[in-house]
Specification:
The protein is mostly helical. About 50% of the residues lie in helices and about 0% in strands. It starts with 13 loop residues before the first helix and ends with a helix.
């Protein structure tokens, strides 16, 4: 999944980009507070996100 962030309309700094590149090298760690989503839960989350974004555009 790709996420894009900007700060006050400005592109990220070189330091921020380096942090993202370093984070890409590490695996995702799940625990009891943040468990991995099942395929059904991922589908429901995506549907809810699409609906939310459509309402925001209107």
């Amino acid at each position: 999944m790709i996420k894009t962030y900007t700060t006050n309309g400005q592109p990220p700094t070189d330091e921020q980009l380096k942090e993202v590149e370093e984070a890409k090298k590490h695996p995702i760690v799940f625990d009891e507070d943040c468990e991995e989503l099942s395929p059904a839960m991922i589908k429901a989350f995506r549907c809810a996100t699409v609906r939310r974004n459509r309402r925001r555009k209107a």
